[in-house]
Design goal:
heterodimer, A: alpha+beta, four-stranded mixed sheet, 22% strand, elongated, B: 604 residues, Glutaredoxin, Ubiquitin-like (UB roll)
Chain lengths: 109, 604
Amino acid sequence: MKSSTELDAIRDKLRVFIGYSCAIDEKIDTKVLVRMSDDCVKAADEVIRACMSEIEKLDLEHVKVTKLGSVTKIDGEPVVEVTVPGKEKVVYKNVNANSAREIIAKLNK
Amino acid sequence: MLERAHIMICGGTGCTSGNSKKVMEEFERRLTEHGVRDEVKLIMTGCFGLCARGPIVAVYPDGAFYQHVKVEDVEEIVSEHIVKGRRVTRLLGSERTESGEVMPINQTPFYRSQKRIVLRNCGRINPENIDEYIAFDGYKAYEKCVKEMTPEQVIQLITDSGLRGRGGGGFPTGKKWLSTYNAKDDQKYVVCNADEGDPGAFMDRSVLEGDPHSVIEAMMIAGYAVGATQGYVYVRAEYPIAVQRLQIAIDQAREYGILGENSMGLGHKFDMEIRLGAGAFVCGEATALIHSIEGHRGEPTQKPPHLAEHGLWGKPTVLNNVETYANIPQIILNGPQWFKAMGTEKSPGTKVFALGGKIVNTGLVEIPMGTTLRTIIEEIGGGIPHGKKFKAAQTGGPSGGCIPASLIDTPIDYDNLIAIGSMMGSGGLIVMDEDNCMVDIAKFFLEFTVDESCGKCTPCRIGNKRLYEMLDKITQGKGTMEDLDKMEELCKYIKANSLCGLGQTAPNPVLSTLRYFRDEYIAHVRDKKCPAGVCKALLNYVIDKDKCIGCGLCARKCPAGAITKSDYIAEGHKLPSMQIDVTKCLKCGACMDSCTRQCAISKK
């Protein structure tokens, strides 16, 4: 039998999941956009994986990572654009897995 | 690892019949092929509401809302969107913002006027996974009730919220619960009415398919409030997906110890079972439903005694509709004031409508009460297809009535609908355009009630049959003006003398069409014409001799061989025109569809 505290534990565990599935009633969240052209998909995937593992580690339910592809080459790809609500957009170029982790860690409130 | 994308595929009945299960399998296969399966969560979810554009696939967190997704499109979505990060714009619907970008789905006309409370989890969670329901504050309302409130307080809260029964009658839910609470007995029951019988209504089905746990939780709350320990959901066997998902939900809730002897360790006992109905319309009526659960014939009995005192197996019973239950956990969590702030003063909250008929966006919409019919049809529904003119809307199915175009600005709530001769019903909304004959519509609904009448009381069994015969006579062109008055008189008699709601409301479609579209009845009776061109007996297909080029295509299509060459050659034409032998004509319309010169054949 699950007690009410165990149900709370489930809620806690799935908090990030909630953040990911509410486009119909969109919340204002921190958006992390990973941009690349087709040549750079592999490197961008590395960056995204690093972001996701960091998000999971730090339990950041307000951060959403999206991939945005481009047909033409982008200067300094993979590029990471971070938009925190109410603040100006920050753009990072030539990001790798390590720097991606740093970027996400900075978003920890 | 944490998934970077969620793909939600609609698993409602509409999209399932549009092959969404195959789409799901294809996603599974393609994602594995591209080696990204463990980075993406694949979920079969409940109805998104936009059934007209199904099967629907939503990708989060991007919020891409793919429509009309076929199995062949899956590879493109996976390789372009998931791998390369480029949305497949051709599948994203036609709505664009001013700057020409794809409009976010919550800003499209279909979604922006909606307020999803009952349908909040449809399209958001996997209904077959209890954890996801729990994650969205599931079973929190029940916990709050048992831990912090007395049964009296729960009932008071529901009364304060002003929630009214969503099954159609609009009886205050709090009042219903209170009288069951006040009845003293050793055993009480909580029953959920999921026997949705109205043609064209499918909101209860969608709630059970998309969010079954919300109904379970609400029934547990009702059980705590009125002092019942056993619940039944009466659902029709014609809803296989809903039954299956509800059963999975009940099993999971039992496994988690949420249903059972000591739910969640809070000391309250509640368990529930599904009872399948065979799909008789009359079993949606409270007393007939109870008899059917007991294993007897689904026939209504006289009220009083009300179910609150003498219900299932003679014990006090609280019976509510699926949609009513689905509102309850949210009311408990957010408070009665939050609920009252939506809708109108006498009908707070929202209502789910199943939009059907001649409308662009067929589907499921949830709107605050008091929204006008115009908003529903023109904005959310996207208007009438092919630029036709709106003629009437039928609410409440066979128990309701038609709302004519002149009343399109009526705010929809229980009392307004009754005042204009219709009713809320369970929320089916069938839109009709100029090609629908109102006499034929009334006949269609009456035929349904004649079929579905249980035959127990005379006014309903014989009265409706006679009424149907008179309508049939009119559509055959054999009606007289006295028939119209006789029909009206008979309608009033049936309404006043029938035993249950089925008979009492059965003449409504006839009465409301007689009230608003009397001129159409008169055209059938006096002029022997059907203005909309639907009633076959009053219809003749005519070939315009001067326009016909004599190609003979219609003659080849005619199943009765009624079309032959005439001996008339129109000026400037080389071949003789065709002619129709009215004695042989079946009035199927095949000739009109086949005509290369659309104007040559017409209905008269």
